Amino acid sequence: MSENNQMLQEAFNIIYIGAAKQNFVRSVDKTLYYCRYVGDNNTKCHIGHLIPDAEYTPKLEGKEFSISKDLQKILIKYKDYFELLTELQHLHDTDINNNTQEDLIKFAQKYNLTIPSY
Question: What whole-number distance in Å separates Cα of residue 89 and Cα of residue 83?
C-alpha cells in the first residue's frame, strides 16, 4: 500500500472504529435534528472522529467541511483526501435510514480499503 493509501486507510480506520464504538449511531442535535461533529452523548459524525478532542470547539458546528478553513486546517494531514472526506461527511449527513455501517462498507469497497477490526 502506498504512503498516500495508508493515510486514507488511517482516516477510514479512525472513522469506522469510532462509528462502531457508538453502534453506528449518527451524531445529530436531537432538538433541531441537524448533524453535528460532536453531538449528544459525545457521538461523533465521520469527520468528528478525525477532529482531536483538544481542537474541537462548538464554533465548528454548522460549518461544511468542504468549505471550512478552520476544519481543513485541523485536518491538514488528510489534505490529499478532502474530497473523499467530504463524501464521507455526505454519507453521514444524508443517512436517514441508519445505514451507517453498510454505507461505510460500500465506501471501503469503492476505494479498496480494508474494514478494520475493533
Answer: 10
Q: Which of 96, 75, 95 is nearest to 84 (CA)?
A: 75
Q: Which residue has the cell 475493533?
A: 118
Q: Quote the pTM value.
A: 0.90
Domain coordinates in residue numbering, the chain: 3-110
Cell of 88: 464521507
**Which of 35, 74, 55, 45 lies closest to 82 in space, CA to CA?**
74
The whole-angstrom separation of Cα 80 and Cα 83 is 8
Q: What is the CA radius of gyration of the chain?
A: 13
What confidence tens digit (pLDDT) does each residue in 31-46 have?
777 789 998 889 999 9
